[in-house]
Amino acid sequence: MSVPSSFVRPTTRPDEIHRLLTDVERYNPSNTVLLEDYLARQCANPDSTSNHDLMANLALLKLYQFNPEMLDHDVIRRILAKALISAIPADFNLCLYLLTDEVCKDASIAKLLALRESLERAQFVKFWRDMYDPEDEEEESVVDGIAGFDNGLRRLILAEITATYQKIPLAAVQDMVNLDEEAVLRLAKENGWAVDGSVISLPVKSEVKASVINENV
């Protein structure tokens, strides 16, 4: 059986953390500080593709589940924010399964859940608007302290655009990735998209051919 890529050891995981995660001491409450420090290092690294250690973050959430007096809502917020920009959609849900309804009522966590719903529905314009809503009463952004969050999110949106469209207005892409025209033109060049006036043409996707399977019973 193949191991899900989310659980393959990241190259950035320290040996100390790897031993902790594969040892009987994994759920020792005294390891909470070590895992919180490791999460802080993940959040400080702007490369979301190589520095998101789901296995370590799930272990930390499990420790909170076993020891609710140690629970830190800000740590949970950062775990969910990192999972939100993971290339594997299931990462966010796996973290969510370890949270109680009471924890999910926390303002910042509840907002992340709403943002996740916008992403799942491909409501990207709404996502950006809600995330940076100037009328939000929260003093800090729900993604505060997550280096490279916006670029990590744009990477996911660009993949969705590539998989969905063959032609799309330049202005629509601007709104979807929350960038100005000049920045979108640079993205188009980097991704090999052709720009003709106000329209972007994406590479033609390989056509899926139907096949007929005969069964003899």
The tally of beta strands, per DSSP, is 3
Report the radius of gyration as a whole number of Å.
20 Å
Largest beta sheet: what is the strand line-up? 1-3-2
Taking pLDDT < 50 over at least 5 consecutive residues as the criterion, the unreliable ranges are none
Main sheet makeup: 3 strands, antiparallel
Question: What's the N-to-C terminus distance?
Answer: 30 Å
- Count up the helices: 11
Indicate the structural class. Answer: mainly alpha
The gross shape turns out to be: elongated
Mean pLDDT: 89
Beta-strand content bin: under 5%
From N to C, what is the helix and strand string?
HHHHHHHHHEHHEE
Portion in helices: 40-55%
Short description:
With 217 residues, this protein is mainly α.
Structure description:
This protein has 217 residues and is mainly alpha-helical. Helix content is 52%, strand content 4%. The chain contains eleven helices and three strands. A three-stranded antiparallel sheet has the order 1-3-2. Helix 2 (32-44) packs across helix 4, helix 4 (73-84) runs antiparallel to helix 5 (90-96) and helix 7 (107-120) runs antiparallel to helix 8. The longest helix is centred in the C-terminal third of the chain and has 16 residues, at 149-164. It is elongated and about 60 Å long. The two termini are 30 Å apart. The mean pLDDT is 89.
